[in-house]
Structures are given as structure tokens and as C-alpha cells.
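Q: Hi! First time doing this. I have a protein sequence and I read that you can turn it into a structure. Is that right? Here it is:
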Amino acid sequence: MLGFEPRAARYTWTAALTLLLLCLVYLMRKTLFVFIVALLFAYLLSPLVDLIDRLLPGGRRRTPALAIAYLIFLAVLFVGGFQIGSRAVAQANLLAKSMPAVIEKFQQPAPPAAPGANTLKEQMIQKLHEEIARSSSDIIASLPRYGEKVLSVASNLIYVVVVPILGFFFLKDGRRMRCHFLDMIDDQSRRTLVDDLLADVNLLLAHYMRAIVILSFATFTAYAIFFSILGIPYSILLAALAGALEFIPIIGTLSAGLIIVLVTALNGGPVLAAVLFLLFFRVFQDYVLSPQLMHAGMELHPLAVLFGVFAGAELAGIPGAFLSVPVLALVRIIYRRIRGQRLAAKPREALPVAPV
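A: Yes, that's right. Below is the predicted 3D structure, encoded as C-alpha cells:
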């Protein structure tokens, strides 16, 4: 006779609800990504809001500090966008106009090497010329596809307005949301665990956003100065691209480096100097600057970072790669907290009593 075991039924329902929740998260991934970006934006502005809130006279609510912080952010964004964005757009238009002529030039057969010309530089230039000539037709054929992607991104510009609005509510009511969420947990031990987890996540995201913004700004500044000194064409455009791609771990860095080397080579710039600078700055960024900025909770093994970035890119494209590192850090924090609580909850073994 078949029996009904409540424990097995409870586990079955838990597994089914977990799978259903994962399916819902996957179906709503675009909306969730917008809210996550808004949350990270709120963490970006949180130090400024807290500073203004402390400077304002007592007895005020948080809203005036938020309004002043948003005005300062918009002013900095407008000035920076006007000073840098205008030059980057002008260089991008110039690059777009010159690309067909450059590609046509490289489509021509490479000149034969001079007798006895076996230097490494000449061999590299000839190989690069042959490779670009071989793939130039594919580049031209793929331009319409990239144009469609640009139009698709432009259609999502509404999120540029939505994200600051959502960030405003996160900054204004974040503490209240946390208190309401904790009030839903009756068990005191679980409530303490969740409270500690939220505190760790809050510290982690604050450090991560501060670090990634500083790293992006440092990349843009160093690239712009060095490229301008060397006379590398489209220096501001390439520096702005590298700074923006710094938000995407590994994939963004590699993509920026390849684009910089390719554009420099196509326009007759100092390729070797650009490659040496990229390697030197990458070592400085990864082993000196980044460890000083990242919080201890962000310490992840390089294999874990590589797996997370490529897995995130495969599952959700660029958003998945962008969120891979903080998600892995969150998983690490949750695991350590739960493991620590379970170890603390285990009864201590009775120590042997020494004979008298």
C-alpha cells in the first residue's frame, strides 16, 4: 500500500518552487537587470548623499540631500559629457569616414618583402596586412548587422531615464525596505543571519561600485594622456571606449585592447608602443591599483572569475558578464555566513576531564 510521507512531499514542493522561481527569474531577466543597475547606481551616489545629509541642518528628511546629490551628479555628467563626449563623437565620425578608404587600402595585395628584410617588425607588418586584407570583406559584410545592434541599443535608451528614477527610490527608502524585510522573519537566529548577510552585501556592493568607477576613470585618464603624447590617432575616443569597457571584466579589457591595437595599426600609429603600454598598465591595474580598491570580500580566485565571466556572457550576454563578479562574490559571502552559523550552532564536544 502506498504511503504519504510529509517530509518527502515538503522536499518535492521546495524543489518545484525553486525551479519555478529560477524560471521566472530567467523570463524576467531584462527587467531584473534594470533594477540591479539602478541598485548599483544608488550605491554609486550613496556616499555623496550621506555626506550632504550630514551637512544639512537637523530635522530634515533624506529627500533634500537626494535632490542636491542628483543636481551635482547631473552637473558633473553634463560638463564631463560636453568636454569629453563632444571630442569623442567628433573622432568617431572621423573614424567612420576614414574606415572605407583604410580597408580598401589594406584589401590591395601586400607589397613583396625586400630582399634580406627579415626583421621582426617588417614580418609583423606584412602578416597584419595579409590578415586584414583577408578579413576586410567579412568586416564590410557584417556592418549592417552591427548597425542593427546599434539601433537595438538606441531603442533601449529609455532606461537611461528609468535607472536614475529607480535609484532615487532605492536611496530614499532602502533602509525602510530592509527593516520591512527583516520584520517578515520570525525566527531570531535566521533574522540575525539575514541581517548579517544584508550588511555584508551592502558593504560589498558599495566597495565594488567605488572601485569599478575609480578603475574606469583611471583607465580613461592614463590612456588619454599616453595616447595623446604618442600621437596615436583618435586618442580620446579610444580612451573613452577603454574606460567604458572596464565595467566588463576580462572580456571588456581584451576587447578594448584589440580595438586599440587594430585602430592604431590601420592608421599607421606606433603599434609596438601601444602594445607595451597596454601590457604595462594592465599589470599595474590588476596587481597594484585593483587590490588596493577592492574590498576583501571581492577576493576571488582567477579561475572562478574566468568561469563566471564566460558563463555569464553565455547565459545573458554583456549584462551577464558585467554582473558575474559581484554575483560570485555574493555567493561566496552567503556560503561563508551560512557555514559559519552552522559551525557555531553545533554543540561543543565535551572536553575530557583530567584525572585528579
